[in-house]
Amino acid sequence: MSIKIIFYLIKAFRPVHWVKNLSIFAALLFSPHLFSTNSFELLVLAFLSFCLATSATYIFNDVVDAPYDRAHPIKKHRPIASGKIPIPLAVATTLILIGTSTFISSFLNPIFSILLYLYLLLQFLYTMWLKNISVIDILTIASGFLLRVYAGAFVIDAHLSVWFMLCVISVALFLASGKRRAEIGIIQKANVTRKSLSNYSKPLLNSYVTMFGNAAWMSWALYTFYESPQVTNDIWILLSEISRTTTISKLLMITIPVAIFGIMRYQSLIFQNKTEAPEKLLLTDKSLVFSSILWVSLVTLILYGGIAEH
What is the fold of 1-160? Predict the structure, then answer.
């Protein structure tokens, strides 16, 4: 196998999309396991397993979609659609990746393995059928994020509240509808039609984006209100003696403006047709990168920085 073929295979893995799998580590942050070496090691294995699985689904999707991708202004350059990777090699690679991924999962929590198999099944159904059914396709894309988050939680046996589940669902639907909105914008601009988008219109997708964007920040606000830890820092105790206002232990609510800014920024990119590949934006858009780092830093400080009791 030539170096060039290996390069194209790695490109077909879409490693930039692995950033989505970082959601597996959410359970590590939002449970008392952040500094647990054993939990971190288990989640690294889970992350690797999901990365291999997602790459397998991407290659399989590219094989099935190759005839349609050749008519797409961006996807026509993918290694399989452009003919740089032979179909038999792509199929064999898919099977190897799935086998390796499920083998790694066998060393983890059995429920993690079940969720991984469910993810693979959903992606197979999505590629073959579900992506052509409006609304169901968005729900399927969003379910992938939910499965990642809770797969990570089962690996380390962490509890994630129902409010956090609502946050994950809302954000996942926001990202999925934003992806569809960007796709239809690009395709209409290029005068290309795709079956998967035939039942959508810009106004409909705009309403989805607005609805789920609102749900995302509101569900996070509810989470911070109901799940904020009790403060024990001496400064806060002193302030509570001065004013009853500061006795309310809702420190996580400090992060709400950051979350709103991130959602507003991402929504502006959606309407610029730039969110077809959200994983790239999360790595390259300076405003999103800054707000993400700030949000994670604040959450970590509040939960683990000695401000809150564990």
Answer: Tetracycline Repressor; domain 2 (1.10.357)
